[in-house]
Amino acid sequence: MTPQAEHHLTRDHIFTVMQAQLKKLADSYETIPEEIHWSDSIMTDLGFDSITVVELCCAVEEALQIKELPLNRWLNEQSEKDGERYTIASFVDLVLSANAPQ
Questions:
Q1: How far apart are CA 25 and CA 22, in angstroms?
Q2: Which of left, alpha, beta for 82 (phi over 0: left; psi -120 to 50: alpha)?
Q3: What is the model's pTM?
Q4: For 36-65, how does the pLDDT look when each residue is reduced to its tens digit (9 = 90+)?
């Protein structure tokens, strides 16, 4: 990744990286569908448990060469939500907010 790309993470780029990382994890998890959508729940639709969410988080951090994500905060916030929780879109937003210029 170029230094310029590092500082200009877009939702679409992060989503693409997440798709690639999910496909790498797919060998272990038969619940991962061929197509991954923004609204998919990482836990409900993809069947991940909290340990696998940590694995995904680490893989995304490494692939994007970004600092540590506040995963526990995200998990806690998502657990308190009504309706759709732990979505791909909310994880992408986590990456964006954690890497926004201060």
A1: 5
A2: beta
A3: 0.83
A4: 899 999 988 888 888 889 999 999 999 999
